[in-house]
Fold this sequence. Notes:
By secondary structure, the protein is of the alpha/beta class. It has helices at 12-28, 33-39, 50-62, 74-88, 103-116, 129-137, 150-158, 195-198, 216-227, 233-241, 251-260, 271-280, 313-324, 326-336, 376-387; strands at 64-69, 95-100, 123-126, 169-174, 177-181, 207-210, 246-248, 265-269, 288-290, 297-298, 300-306, 339-340, 363-364. It contains 15 helices and 13 strands.
Amino acid sequence: MITGVALQCGGAAQYWEEFMKLLTSAAAGAVSAVALLGAATLANAAELNAQEKALIEAAKAEGEVTIINPIFAERTAKRMGEAFKKRYGLGDDFKFNNLRKGTGATVAQVTQEIKAGKFTVDVHLVSAPGFFDQAAKRGAFLELDSGYWKDSEELVKKAGQYSNYPYVVTPLAYSFQPVWNSSCPGMADFKINSYKDALAESLKGKSIASDITKSFTYTNTVIALSRAGAVNLEDLWTGLKAQDPVVEFRTEPKMQMLISCERAFDMWNITGRVYQNVLKQPKLASVLKTGTYKEGQVMLGNQLAVLKGAQHPNAGKLLVEFLLSKEGADIYVEGEALYSFRSNYTPPDAAKPYLFDLNKEKLVGMDDWVGAQGEFKPVREKWQSYFQ
Length: 388
């Protein structure tokens, strides 16, 4: 699961200060890959935008780039690094470093580096609107000049996502969806298209309750659904509690519960986890099922920025441009079954079965992702009254 730090703060300034307190405390304590890579050949000058061309030589001289994020698995990072170097002719000696940590850990590390003024990271990608908002206000990010951001900006706004160009862009997202194993007892004919279906009595002893106290993204999903009037939280928690669920917050352990039939249904998981397990065990493709909620799918945009003071600023800016391009999107969508916000984007065939159409589903976002942080404490306390 992509996890977060449990913040309990009422406003933007308090949010930042709480990060510093938490940081101090923490301081103490495969099928289509070949085809896709074949298509990702060295782009000629006509295929690159002016911003890319302007950055290539400086990026090559810097010799490496480091991105910290909670998403890109080893397979995806390897293919991304190879394609990045090939697209811009950076050479085999150029180092592409993918540092993968949990959401809270990425924010804690970057916060520490900003505070100390010493950087090991160049680019930060994570779903943490409150952090990016406050860091941008404090001048922590370099100004971007992107030729590709315009291709994503419209859909980002439509999906109700936070961005702050020219300092913070939001290239991609994921969304929690219902996932179940049709081979588990009593699940052969199970269907779902609403939260009412997710609370069916037939799921008693078969479901999983996602621990929202340990995750930014679960908590933001709850707040977004509530603000949109999509669900009544009292009814949701009461119905889920009646199913006698197992409580877990990481998406991969939950997926393993589904695969083993320890549990048969998960109200909130990531279809990319289904995809990755199918790549490992192709037979799972016929039994692991996914759906969407007619009440709306909460899109959890991941923000992206280059740190001011980074050791490799030009390579960082070039990587941001790459991730906003179609070639970059194809790699992370194929690797992780994520959603690209590029307009009229068609995902690689291998990932298509695990993605819904952003133009057809009802998308739920928030007008004020930063202000939502002030609701974390009461929302989590209410959840805890049911499940802990």
